[in-house]
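hey can u check if this looks right to u? its 188 residues, i copy pasted from the old doc so theres a chance i mangled smth
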Amino acid sequence: MAKQVYIIHGYGASPANHWFPWLKEKLIADDNQVLVLHMPNSSDPKKEEWLETLANKIKNFDNNTYFVTHSLGSITLLNYLEQLDPLPSFGGFILVSGFCQPLSSLPSLNPFTVKKVNYKKIISATNSRAVISAKDDYIVPFQLSQNLSKQLDTSFYPVEKGGHFLEDDGFITFPLVYDILNNMMKTV
């Protein structure tokens, strides 16, 4: 059964940036359906616009649906999942450099973190959850991703040196994400 994977980029990015095209190609080669969402106004993101984009673009929502998010895409996904009523069971997610608390370096993103996420609701919808963070992340402090992992009761993958996992940090491929996702998709 083919899996549907949605990749959600973060602040200042697009589907063509970083490791997203590489991951999409790898997953398509494995016969999965992949959509890298184009989030609007990524250099001046508005929470409502980003949530609306997810609502309009995410068509499949079942045990074969998976999400890979980066940075701001992570809290956007969590806000989106939480507002679904009921929240259907789904395959799983990987949050890369995710956060759920305000970032002192980017106060313009605070509206995304104002409302507390109902973690229990999200945990109950899927068994496959992972967070990846670099100890040297200079945008989202490692501790924030670690806190998010604890709140969501996920597997946690600390990376010694990865920065914010951007192209500028050397990330045009990201085998760790691919491997974790493949393991998730096999266990269903």
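The chain has a mean pLDDT of 96.
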